Amino acid sequence: MEGVNKVAAADLGRSVLTGTLxxxxxxxxxxxxxxxxxxxxxxxxxxxxxxxxDEHLDKKVEDAYxxxxxxxxxxxxxxxxxxxxxxxLETLQKDFGVAMNDKEMSLFNWHLENLEFTNAGLLSQLSLxxxxxxxxxxxxxxxxFFPSGNERLVHAMAENVPxxxxxxxxxxxxxxxFFAGEATTGRYPATMHGAFLTGLxxxxxxxxxxxxxxLHLQVKK
Length: 221
Ligand SMILES: Cc1cc2nc3c(=O)[nH]c(=O)nc-3n(C[C@H](O)[C@H](O)[C@H](O)COP(=O)(O)OP(=O)(O)OC[C@H]3O[C@@H](n4cnc5c(N)ncnc54)[C@H](O)[C@@H]3O)c2cc1C
Known about the structure:
Elements: E1 2-3, E2 6-7, E3 15-17, H1 24-31, E4 37-38, H2 55-78, H3 85-95, H4 102-119, E5 144-146, H5 151-157, H6 192-214
Antiparallel strand pairs: 1-2, 3-5, 4-5
Helix pairs in contact: 2-3, 2-4
The structure holds flavin-adenine dinucleotide.
C-alpha cells in the first residue's frame, strides 16, 4: 500500500519467522528469493480517537513496564511458592508507584494486555516462575513476516517430488513408524522451523532405514 510519502505492507495468511539467524525457513526464503518484511521494533501507540500518544509518555511507561518485568524476574528467584505473573506485576506496579495517573495507567494496561496476547493466556493464569521458559529456545536475529505463509515454502520444496495419496506402504513385512512435528522437538516447540527440522530428522531416518534394508542389514532398534 502506498500513500503520501508512506509505503506499508499488509499480508493475509502470512507467517512470522521468529528470529532469522540459523532459521532454516529464513535460509529457504533467501534461496528462493522471497521477500521478507522486517517486523519493526517501533510500535507507537494511539489513543482510541486516533491521536498519537505523546512520544515521551509512551517511552516512559514502556521503560517502566520493562523495568517491572525485570524486577518480576528477580522476584521469582526469591519466592518459594508458585504465584501468578499478574499478581507479581500488580504488586510491583503499586510498590514502585508506576503509572499512577489515568493516562499512564491506560498505556500500562496496554502492555499487560499485549503480554496476555503474546502468551495466549491471562496474566492471572500464567506462572511467574515459568511463563517465559521457552525464551532460551528463540532463534537470534530480527523477526520477519513471510508473505503468503509457509505454504509457498512447502510447494517449492515439493516441486518434482512424487506425492501419492491413499496408498498403503509395504515395508517388506516390517513396520516402521516415524514421528515428526513440532510436538516432537524439545529444542524449538510450537514453531514452524521446529516442525520443519523434525521433518528433516525423520526423513534422514527413513532414508537410513531404506538403505539398510536394501543392503539386507539387520537394523538394531
Ligand atoms: C494461529 C497460529 C499461528 C501460528 N503462527 C506461527 C508463526 O507465525 N510462526 C511459527 O514459527 N509458528 C507459528 N505457529 C506454530 C506452527 O504453526 C506450528 O508449530 C506448526 O504448524 C506445527 O507443524 P506440524 O507439522 O508439527 O503440525 P500441523 O501443522 O498441526 O500438522 C499436523 C497435520 O496432521 C493432520 N492430522 C491430524 N490428525 C490426523 C489424522 N488422524 N490423520 C491424518 N491427518 C491428521 C492435521 O490436519 C494437520 O494437517 C502458529 C500456530 C497457530 C495455531
